[in-house]
Write a structure and sequence with these properties.
It is a single chain. This protein has 420 residues and is of the alpha+beta class. The chain is built from 15 helices and ten strands. The chain has a six-stranded antiparallel beta sheet. Strand 8 and strand 9 form a beta hairpin.
Length: 420
């Protein structure tokens, strides 16, 4: 039978129980193989219970010292009770100087003390007993997270000024830099909010008119990495010029905010229609515009498009790519069976092949095709090539060369270009 002898208001602070007539300290820590919480106990004496009852600071110090032993037990191991018991007298009954000396030698959970209000400056100096005088039973996990975030920055040589911290707080990235940035003005100290908004306004002016396009090669919600990099560079340059006092973390979080918002706008917009971007200036008047096309991928899927459809060929083709593109499905083809020509887009190698019929099938013989290879400059290059083909066929692709029928030489040239 287990009876609770002493517990504090916070459910996580270790409690003292009586089990089989023996006093034991019980604490929850870590998780088992099924991600359920683990519970550990080890024996304590009456003298230890007395200190635990009367001295919150010593109680928290013991918890902080025992937690690494629980972590060492892993998902299924046993707590080293001897090691845990060996901590009782030094932590609970030792003189402050002896406790501080002990904490210089053993691992301990600093974040646990900070979350319960321990004085951070004193902890940093090793004065752990003095630090926990300010501790409370109530825990504030955000305080510990903020401390760890600041330590990670300090290890990189970054110290935040008040405006830097306010900017990171505004975007919700103070604690975790990988968090998708937001606009949270209510989280910022009102005294600094005006300055934060001034920095954000600088960023908005820098990327006004810029956009991040969708990139169906990466799936339905992917966006163009080149566009992202261009926008990020423009914002960071402008912000650093206008606010040179800001640290890189603050500049990057504003850049991330602008790019993330632009990418979201792209993802929530209809698939881009490119056909009107290529006109008579491309050397044709549109009279060769396709009336029927077949889209296929490397896995055998096929989609037909007819000119009387409400959506354009380019919009339907890029939607087909977005639906079908995966890491193992990176080759897509557009074919005009009536004209005997087509293009094959090879996304993995940033290349394209244009295919025309050199000789029609005769007397049961197979037709002969002419295959020429060219490069595509990212998704914007692919969009131009697809638009040109849809409007004018393979002939309209001539100005987008150079083109070569020597596949081996093209591959050598491509590899040299990629290595530069």
């Amino acid at each position: 039978m287990t009876d609770t002898v002493f517990t504090r208001g916070s459910g996580w602070i270790p409690k003292v129980i009586r089990e089989g007539g023996e006093l034991r300290l019980m604490l929850g820590a870590g998780a088992d193989a099924n991600h359920g919480p683990r519970t550990f106990t080890f024996p304590v004496g009456e003298a230890h219970l007395a200190v635990i009852r009367e001295d919150l600071g010593r109680h928290l110090l013991l918890w902080s010292a025992v937690l690494p032993l629980c972590d060492a037990a892993g998902t299924g191991g046993r707590l080293d009770e001897d090691a845990a018991v060996a901590l009782l007298d030094p932590v609970l009954l030792g003189a402050p100087t002896d406790v501080e000396a002990l904490f210089q030698r053993i691992p301990w959970d600093r974040g646990r003390l900070i979350s319960h209000g321990a004085d951070i400056a004193l902890l940093e100096r090793g004065e752990v007993c003095a630090a926990v005088r300010a501790a409370t039973e109530t825990s504030d996990g955000k305080r510990a997270e903020k401390y760890h975030a600041d330590r990670r920055r300090a290890e990189r040589g970054t110290v935040l000024a008040p405006l830097d911290a306010a900017i990171l707080t505004y975007t919700g990235q103070y604690l975790y830099g990988a968090t998708v940035p937001q606009r949270i003005p209510e989280a910022v100290d009102p005294a600094l909010l005006g300055k934060v908004m001034g920095v954000v306004a600088t960023a908005e002016r820098a990327c006004a008119g810029m956009r991040i396009s969708r990139d169906p090669r990466g799936g339905k919600r992917a966006t163009d990495k080149r566009d992202w990099k261009r926008m990020a560079a423009a914002v960071e340059t402008a912000v650093r010029r206008a606010h040179p006092e800001l640290v890189d973390d603050a500049v990057r979080t504003v850049s991330f905010l602008m790019c993330s918002e632009a990418a979201d706008r792209a993802r929530n917009s209809p698939v881009q229609d490119d056909e009107e971007t290529v006109g008579s200036h491309a050397g044709f008047d549109g009279s060769a515009r396709k009336t029927a096309l077949s889209f296929t991928d490397d896995e055998g899927a096929e989609k037909k498009w007819l000119r009387d459809r409400p959506r354009t060929a380019t919009a339907e083709f890029w939607e087909f790519v977005g639906d079908r593109s995966t890491g193992n499905n990176q080759v897509f083809t557009i074919e005009d069976e009536e004209m005997g020509e087509g293009i094959q887009l090879q996304f993995r190698t940033d290349s394209i092949a244009r295919i025309t019929t050199a000789r029609e099938a005769e007397d049961g013989s197979d037709p002969e095709y002419r295959v020429e290879y060219g490069r595509a400059d990212g998704i914007s290059g692919y969009r131009k090539l697809v638009s040109a083909f849809v409007r004018g066929g393979c002939a309209a692709l001539e100005e987008h060369g150079p083109w070569t029928s020597d596949a081996a030489e093209f591959e050598r040239t491509r590899l040299r270009h990629d290595a530069e």
